[in-house]
Every structure is written in structure tokens, then in C-alpha cells.
Amino acid sequence: MPEHSLDGIQIAQTPPAEHKIARNRAQSTAFVGRTLRGPLNTPLVVRSFADFQQIFGGLWQPSPLSYAVEHFFDQGGRQAVIVRVANQAAPATVSLRCERESLVLEACAPGTREFLRASIDYDNLDPADVLSFNLVVQRVRAPGSERIEEQEIFRTVNVDPLSDRNVANVLAGSHLVRVRGQVPKSRPAVTLMPGTNLPVGYVSSSPDGDDGRPLSDYDIIGSAARGTGLFALADHDDLAFVYIPPLSRSTEVGASTLLVAARFCREHHAMLIVDPPLAWETPGAALQGLKELDFYNDSAVMFFPRLACMDRLRGRAEIFGNGGAVAGLLARSDDADALVPTSPEPEPLLRAGARLAREVSPADRRRLSQAGINVLQTVRGTDRTRAPLRTLACGASVSSDGSYLTPRRFVQSVIRAIENGTRWAVVRPHDPLVQQRVTRQVAEFLTELRTSGAFRSALPDSAFLVICDERINDPHDDPGALNLLVQLAAIHAGDYHSYMITHSLRSSTVRPVVVNRLEASLRVGDELEREITIRVDQENDFVRVLAG
After folding, report:
1. Cα(116)–Cα(177) distance, rounded to whole angstroms?
2. Gap between the terminal Cα atoms of the chain
3. What is the pLDDT of residues 499-513, one digit of tens each?
4. In degrees rounded to 5, what are phi and psi of residue 282?
């Protein structure tokens, strides 16, 4: 059996038994922004607003994200991924007394609402060992509360700088605390109950945490190298939507964030939900503002107007961005187990509890839709010829499907499924047998989709094209990579989507490409397909097809 060595690990290079590509839609909506508490730059899944309250602290007036998550679940959302970011927030600390020094622990999660306490004991330790101790760290609901939300126990840690059980090394894996500064030379004293000599007492954290300043676009964007901000989502494969709420109640997300987020969504086959700015109070202002925004993208979607919802902290109705509610109503219309084109398209109908900040006339609805702005509804419409949901491509997309939300999401889901389902082939990328299996696997998947109603604009023999062979896989160019060319019929006859999927041991990438078939029809029969030579221009993402 051929093997490949990766950092000393032997990997058997035999392709697995053929399996079907899963026909599942992505289910998660990602929210990136400020929260009251919780770990920084760590994507965590919540399936209810109660989960969000438990982990991230619930509603908080300086956090538009907290209200957006509430609206998301109110409108039928089922699964959210939260990434908390902060600007100059500081953690609370716990000081444990040693002989002449202190062992200072700082919370992993910064902010004023991280209430910790710690306990030291020497139970079951060798009396001759004067360097070791047992440490218990707890997060409690509130100062002085006995309601424990999370607890970590570290037995037989020590202050020996040469030991693997040094407290700083052990706490590097903690979810609650880290050691701040140097570890003292002497171990902490046993913590006693206040006013007694009885053990099992606790030392509470100091009120020195800081929630930080309002967010900037730089905080939201983060760093791809460090996996912070938006890029904390890079390894999450189940993203359907990404929503970045306003930076504050009066500060919109900047153009730089929109551009980076839209590119991120394109690379991860997700849709970016963009709020209409607060200044767009009328349809006319929205149309003019869209021109000035100059943001045209087929991986982004916008709905108008904003929402008037009850602010439970202030006890009155307030105007909010609609992105959380939009994500919820779109998510509730998805069929997670059936990757097929949606027909009829879901109506953008809000549930009770949310109302529009202003009403929009039928004429303005049509004008906004033609510009690429969808309009929310609170009552079911009677117009059977209502406009389809649009993306922010506004006709500027290179594909006919790019301007329409449902076809665009369908193509994203198909390519994501193919990318995930063919990663197994990277173990032997230039084996002809593996390439044949990949081709057959993808072709069977696309055939099933066509049977379910996809690719109706093309004849059966030209609905899709799958190529994975020596024409696009040269072992001398990249011996560890597998290229797979997939072409899908668009909703308009004669138009196609073309993607090059590349798998390597490092990662998998997908990029749209342009296929030129002698400036003729893209229909290719089985007998002609093997007579085509393909040259890939990696720099320009251009695939040139010539007669062989």
C-alpha cells in the first residue's frame, strides 16, 4: 500500500470507498461584534437566545450585536455563531498571596462582567513537597454569588520553573484564567473562609476589568494571520450568512469592513447581510445612498427599511438594523436536508414583534428591487408577480444568476458541497483512478440535483461539465494538488458558472474561472469532451479551452 509521510506520520494513500456528496445546506449565521462578556475571537455556536445570555451576557446597550441575535431567534433563526471582538478591553484579576509575593491570575475573557474566584489547598500532597498546590478556579454569576457557571480544577501544580506542572504551563490550557507576569518562587497560601481558620475559602477577582472602547472597523476586520475578528470564522465550514451589526447605535460599518467581509463571504460560499444606513430614511434616500455607497457585490444582500422593535432594557421601541431579523427569516425558510432550488421563493415576511420603521409603497418596492434592495413585509402580499429577491450585484455581476439571491445561494451551496465532498482525493491527486472516481462522484451528485429540478435552462447533456484529469492536473506544476473543474448551467439559457476547485494537503480553495470554448456554445457532448485541451492561467484565473 503506498504511503505518504507528513511530519513523521505515515498516511496510507488509498482512496476510500466511493460515497455520495452530502446534499445539505449550510445552517449557521455568523455575528461579529461587541458583547458584554465571553471569550474573544473564538467562534461559539448558540442555538437559542438563552444560550447567548449564558455565554455572552445577553442584551447590552452598547452592543448592537446582542439585539441582532435576539431578533435572529425571534424571526426563526436556529443556529448562530458568535465572534466577540473588543477594543482595548482589560481582564479582571485574582491575586493569591504567597510569602512575599502574589500569584496573579487574569481572566481569559476581558470585561467587567467576568466574575471569578480561586481557591488554594494542599490536600493529598506530600508534606515534604513545598512547591506544589491544588488550584480551583470558578466563574460565578455575580460577586458574592454561590451560583457557579463554570469550574476548573488543577491538581498538583507547582511553582517550579523547570517542571511541566508549573502553574503557568498548566493554565495555558485553561478556559478561564492565565498567569499574569512571573510565577512567584513560593507557592500560594491556603485560602481560608473569611474570619476563620477553616480551609476551602475563595479569593474573588478584583473589579479591575474594563469593557473597552467602541469598536472600529479595524477591530471587526481583525487579522487573517492571527485568526482574529472576522477571520476567526475561517475554519467554520457551515456558514450560510455573515452579519456585522453597526459598530455602535450611531456608527455604521465602514466601507473597508464591507469590502473585506464580502471577499471573505465569496471565499467561504456565504452571503453577507448589509444593513441600510440609518440616514436612509426614505426609499429615495436609499436609492441615492446606494449609488454613493458604490458597493456592488453578488455575495452581499440588503433589505429595507430598518426595524422598530421593543428595547427591553430601555422599555420603549427603538430603531435597529434589520440584519439579524433578515438572517432569521431567511434561515427559517431553508430546508437543511434538501439542496434544491427554492421554488417558490420565500417571502420576506417578518413575524410578530417587529414592525417596519416606515411603510414602503408598491411603486417604491419595485424601484428598490430593480436597484438591488429588497423590501421587508409585515403582512403577506397579494401580488403573485412580486419581484424576486436580489443581491447587491445590481446587474453588475458577470453571471446572470449573480443578481438574484436564491440562484446565487444555490450555486454557493452546490460548490461548497462539492469542495467538502471531494477532499478525500488529495491523498493521491495524480492517480488516474482517483481522478476518475472524483469525476464520477461529482457527476452523480449533479445528476441527482438535476433530477430534483436544478439546471432546467439546459439540455440534459449540457447541464453541467466535470473535468478532473491530466488536462488540468500536471504533476510537474504541483505534485501535491488536485484540480477539479466544475461548470453549472445558470438560470438563463446559454449562461454557465465555472469554478476551479483545488485540493492540497495545506488547504482547499475555490475560484471562479472563465471558460472560452472557441467563443461558441458551451454544450459539450461526451464524445467531444475527451478531445478538448485545457490550459489554466493561474495568474489571471482564466481557463482557455482549445480543440485538441
Report:
1. 9
2. 35
3. 999 999 888 899 988
4. -125, 160
